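The instructor's notes for this session suggest beginning with a concrete chain rather than abstract definitions. Hand out the sequence below and ask the class to guess, before any prediction is shown, which regions might be ordered.
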Amino acid sequence: MEVDVVRIGNSKGIRIPASMLKQCGIDKKVTVSVDGNKITLTPSRLPRQGWAEACKKAASRIHEDDPVIYDDTIDLDKLEEP
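After discussion, reveal the predicted structure:
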């Protein structure tokens, strides 16, 4: 596919069909890199991308007999009033 380079203010740009962006998994942000005379666009990783899967994997490794490292329970009877 051949496209025209168009002027955008002090810059230049090209129009990429939405179907091509969708096919590449590009939604909102891209990482642009230059290698020789080639410009490469790759989908940018979203913040916290993959965290849900990592948390599920970590949680699956927890056993009931694992020792408690930090007791985060609060004994309300021992709290002092201001």
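Then share the key points. The chain is about 20% helix and 20% strand. Strands lie at 6-8, 11-13, 30-35, 38-43.
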